[in-house]
Amino acid sequence: NEDVLTLQAELALLKSTLQAFVQECQRCASTVVRAEADAEDLETESKKAAGLIFQPRMEALEAWCREHAAAVAREQGAAAERIQQLEEELRQARWDQVPAPL
């Protein structure tokens, strides 16, 4: 019973941590979207002002944004898998606590 309570507490803490992490990821994703829009605006203006001099830098920034978004997605997937594992452990612990029929 104590193991079940411990698992429940750990699961609740993990869910809370994951929710905070997901919120932070969502904020980062929003920032990335804004940065990409700003980058496109900057790219347009820079082409007007200085030709193609900034193109490689813009492409590097776009590549970084894509890599960051992919990393965020991987982290979210890993956290979701861990929650599923803990939930399964909790279900198993509860099942193990059920008394055998007489």
Structure description:
The protein has helices spanning 2-50, 55-97. With 102 residues, it is mostly helical. It has one domain (2-94). Helix 1 runs antiparallel to helix 2. The chain is rod-shaped, with a radius of gyration of 23 Å. The model has no long low-confidence stretch (mean pLDDT 86). Residues 69-96 form a coiled coil.
Alpha plus pi helix count: 2
User: What's the alpha carbon Rg, rounded to whole Å?
Assistant: 23 Å
DSSP strand tally: 0
Question: What helical percentage do the residues reach?
Answer: over 70%
Shape annotation? rod-shaped
User: What's the domain count?
Assistant: 1
Structural class: mainly alpha
How would you spell out the order of helices and strands?
A: HH
Give the CA-CA distance, first to last residue: 20 Å
- Which ranges are low-confidence, i.e. pLDDT below 50, for 5 or more consecutive residues? none
Mean pLDDT: 86
Beta-strand proportion:
under 5%
Biggest sheet, in brief?
Answer: none
